[in-house]
Amino acid sequence: MQPTVIAPSILSADFARLGEEVDNVLKAGADWVHFDVMDNHYVPNLTIGPMVCQALRKHGVTAPIDVHLMVEPVDRLVPDFAKAGASMISFHPEASRHVHRTIQIIKSHGCQAGVVLNPATSLDVLDWVLEDLDMVLLMSVNPGFGGQSFIPATLDKLREARQRIDAIGKPIRLEIDGGVKPDNIAEIAKAGADTFVAGSAIFNAPDYAEVIGRMKAAVEG
Ligand code: DX5
Ligand code: ZN
């Protein structure tokens, strides 16, 4: 199992003060910045692109930037995000015609590669690519919006994903995204996640350090 990572999703941050918001969550104990990219095509919402990622780097953010692509097609955006300072890039297999090729493109640009599975997508898509991945991201809500409720069936899926990762014995992260809160993070961790995205639970809280601290204590306790 990898060390715990808390990755606040900036989807729920105040975009008018994005640099300051990111500085504040990192100061409050966050490990990564989760960067949700939506294209109004693969998902019914529209957010931010490589320019904003680059702006965060220029602002002085040195923490890993975890780019979650909810876009179709995927491949042509990869070099732009790599240049803009992305540390890891994850994509939805339904949005890429050639999943193996997309993983290779991400890695050849010097980023870590992740595959994201929607709530109704089977773990079987990992069958022939798991060894090539740095991260598996399970969606515990349908992608497109922050503030939705955690889908409980994801716990069984996490347990199965954890077994598959442990079976090949590689340091592949298991990330969970959607509806993660201080009061459910302990059972999500017990099911096998080591990397936790949380948007509304962190950015809607009055005290970022307090909520991130509570989440870490719940995972480690
Ligand atoms: C949803 C995004 C998530 C979202 C999570 O498509 O991928 O990262 O911001 O938000 P919460 O934690 O509020 O469910
Ligand atoms: Zn996300």
TrEMBL record:
Record: residues binding substrate: S9, H68, G144, F145, G146, G147, D177, G178, G179, G199, S200
Cofactor note: Binds 1 divalent metal cation per subunit.
Catalysed reactions listed for this entry: D-ribulose 5-phosphate = D-xylulose 5-phosphate
GO MF terms held by the record: D-ribulose-phosphate 3-epimerase activity
Catalytic residues as annotated in Swiss-Prot or TrEMBL: D36 (proton acceptor), D177 (proton donor)
Residues that, per the record, bind a divalent metal cation: H34, D36, H68, D177
CDD domains xrefs: RPE
UniProt cross-references to HAMAP family, sorted A to Z: RPE
Protein name listed in UniProt: Ribulose-phosphate 3-epimerase
Organism of derivation: Novilysobacter avium
Gene coding for it: rpe
